[in-house]
Structure formats: structure tokens, C-alpha cells
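User: Design a sequence. Structure:
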């Protein structure tokens, strides 16, 4: 009855894509995506390259604007704002405010080379959240402890390994206390022996549970272990979604079956 659904409907999604399309010229890379991510939910997005999965993440990071459709974060439109009761394209001020709710970690760390680890982490909270130097540094210490790098405060990025840089990038995103974290192929630029330490940190953050996470990844084992839900994208559509078990153990569509088969044979041939 109505009662059972009442409970579910009360939880407002933290992230909501509605009818989102994206075209580059005449090439349509996303073909009408509807996707909700609940508060605290960890969603892994998998799929072949060119499937649109990266574009999905880039839109949430405000790096790529939808051609049509809307995206909301915690009930507020990301790319639009309300003017006299109708939706208009967001201005830079609105986008800037919304960006504060989204933490992002990319495959290429994007740290400032001429600033120390501490300066890299405290810059955004001071500039965007207007925290005092003391407050920003206190948050930075806390996050660096969390990623196991509180002894590297005064180091410069060049002195760190790839895995350490990626953990600094994570601390930098976390210090903003975002409502949603987008992790875009965060392990793909790392040497294999450094992947584990980064995944370990993500796992710990994920276990704390309050932050929604979108993980764009080709690490299937990681997706299997960390995600509450896995979304398989291909050809600009969400082809299949479900629990990690459903997606990896019982794929329904031929498209997903062949993707996993190709993926597994690639992994075995590397081993």
C-alpha cells in the first residue's frame, strides 16, 4: 500500500539527474539520463570508454553543461536557477556556490606544485568557505590524519609518490565537507602497487557513510566491494543497474554480459 512507499519518498535524493542529454556537435554522448543518488549512497558507474560515464561525472563537477535536462543537488538546481518562477540558465555566482557542495578527485591529482601539502588543502576552504587560517588548518590536519599523511604537511607534491598525491587530493576534497564526492578514475594513473593504498582510504571514507559518492571506475573489484549500487552505461544510456551482486553475478542484458566477459579476459591476460 501507500504506506510502504511513503517512507521511501520522504528521503530526498542528494543527486538527481532528470532527462539529461549531452551532445558534442552532432554526436550525442548522453541520451536522456534519469538517475537518483540517495544521501550517503555509494554509486559506481562502469561501462566501456565512450559510454558517457565520464561526462555524467563531469556535469556534476560543473565541467560540462547538459544540453537538455536538469541536475539537482540536495533539492537545488545545479545548472539552472529560478527566475520569476521559471528555470533559467545558472549564472557564475550560482555555479560557484553549488560547486562548494561537490568534492572532486581526478585521475591526475591537480595539486599546485609550488605549494606545500598544507597550502594545497587550506586554499579552497579559506577562499570559498571563508574560513580563518586557523580553522582551515585545523580541518586540514584532521583530513590529513584521516588519509594517513599528517607527517607530510610541509612537503611539496614533487616529494610525494603518486598514491600519496592522490590521498592529498582526497583530503583536499574532504576538507570542504561536500554533500557529494565524485571520484573519476582515481586509480588509473597510479602504479599498480599504489592503487591499494588509495582504495583503502576511499573505503574508509565510504564506511563513514554520510556523504553520497559517485565512483567512475574500471576497477570492478573495487566497485563490487564499495558500491551500494552499480550502474552500467553504454552508448549514452543506463543499460542496467542494481546491487554489485546483481550486476556482476547475474547480468541481465547481452550488452553487460559481453562487457564483463571482455573485461575479465583483459584482466586475465594481464595477470
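Assistant: Done.
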Amino acid at each position: 500500500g501507500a504506506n510502504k512507499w511513503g517512507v521511501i519518498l520522504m528521503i530526498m535524493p542528494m543527486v538527481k539527474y532528470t532527462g539529461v542529454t549531452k551532445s558534442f556537435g552532432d554526436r550525442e554522448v548522453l541520451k536522456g539520463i534519469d538517475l537518483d543518488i540517495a544521501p550517503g549512497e555509494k554509486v559506481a558507474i562502469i561501462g566501456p570508454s565512450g559510454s558517457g560515464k565520464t561526462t555524467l561525472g563531469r556535469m556534476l563537477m560543473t565541467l560540462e553543461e547538459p544540453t537538455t535536462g536538469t541536475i539537482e543537488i540536495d533539492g537545488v538546481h545545479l545548472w539552472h536557477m529560478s527566475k520569476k518562477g521559471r528555470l533559467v540558465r545558472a549564472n557564475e555566482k550560482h555555479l560557484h556556490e553549488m560547486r562548494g557542495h561537490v568534492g572532486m578527485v581526478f585521475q591526475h591529482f591537480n595539486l599546485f606544485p609550488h605549494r606545500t601539502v598544507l597550502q594545497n588543502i587550506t586554499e579552497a576552504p579559506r577562499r570559498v568557505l571563508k574560513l580563518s587560517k586557523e580553522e582551515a588548518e585545523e580541518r586540514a590536519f584532521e583530513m590529513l590524519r584521516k588519509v594517513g599523511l599528517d607527517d607530510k604537511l610541509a612537503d611539496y607534491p614533487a616529494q610525494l609518490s603518486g598514491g600519496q598525491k592522490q590521498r592529498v587530493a582526497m583530503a583536499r576534497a574532504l576538507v570542504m565537507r561536500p554533500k557529494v564526492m565524485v571520484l573519476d578514475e582515481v586509480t588509473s594513473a597510479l602504479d599498480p602497487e599504489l592503487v591499494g593504498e588509495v582504495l583503502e582510504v576511499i573505503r574508509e571514507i565510504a564506511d563513514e557513510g554520510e556523504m553520497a559518492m559517485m565512483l567512475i571506475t574500471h576497477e570492478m573489484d573495487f566497485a563490487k566491494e564499495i558500491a551500494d549500487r552499480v550502474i552500467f552505461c553504454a552508448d549514452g544510456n543506463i543499460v542496467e543497474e542494481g546491487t554489485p551482486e546483481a550486476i556482476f553475478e547475474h547480468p541481465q542484458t547481452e550488452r553487460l554480459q559481453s562487457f564483463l566477459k571482455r573485461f575479465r579476459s583483459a584482466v586475465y591476460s594481464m595477470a
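The two ends are 51 Å apart (CA to CA). The chain has a mean pLDDT of 90.
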